[in-house]
Amino acid sequence: MITYLINLKRANDRLVSAKETFDKAGIIFNLEEAVDGKDLSLPHKNYSELKYNLLHGKKTNLGELGCHLSHLNVLKKFLSTKEDWALVCEDDIEFNEDIVEIINDALRSEISFDLLRLSGGSNKTKEIGLPLKLKKIRNDFFLSLNFGFKSGTGCYLINRLAAKNIIKKINKMSLPIDHALDRDWILNLRSLSVSPAPVYLKEELHLENSYIQAKSEFKFPFYKRYWIMVPYRLINELIRLIYKLVLFIKIKIES
Known about the structure:
- With 255 residues, the protein is α/β, with parallel strands linked by helices.
- It has helices at 12-25, 49-56, 62-79, 99-108, 160-169, 177-181, 184-187, 203-206, 222-254; strands at residues 2-7, 30-33, 85-90, 93-95, 115-117, 131-138, 141-146, 155-159, 191-195, 199-201.
């Protein structure tokens, strides 16, 4: 397994914080310089502005485009290696002290996956994504299947198949990267999560010092956004429910 840390060149405070976090966990990482939204301009060959506006209900945020491109760059670098798995991390995270053992136990479990979502939000007591526990892997941590949207790409484990499919399917951004990664049925991969999340976001970096600044001022007025966005999200969640139910049955049959 190879580990990547995504960090903006101008975010040195985050790099210092992340180094402390990784050193404490005993994880060696490869530093990936993030694509800075401030250096991007429109139109961009890897961005569908109209789809983004309609499906996400927001005006363009070049910080989100930079984030999207940064994750794709990491996956491309991963595929240039001979490693089977990559741990992809952003720079505002903190690990549970047993993170290495949790990952190893997940890989040794009899339940297969292509993408394993490891991070939650900044609130450690609140689970996101409506996880259904499948199997206990260590202490109070479980491999789980999410039946709801799981936001965030702070930390995830990914194999070569998933990396190839993601690069192929979402090379052109039309949704924020966490929304795009959360649609397994489009990407043709199997994603699970660990619950409770063994990686969480540092509140002082995620909420108070965000470089993406995906705030409410980017939202279109309700009369512009809801006539497309709401039907899309209703359909998306219905497809998710059906897909996850089928996947749950498959996992039960396999185990």
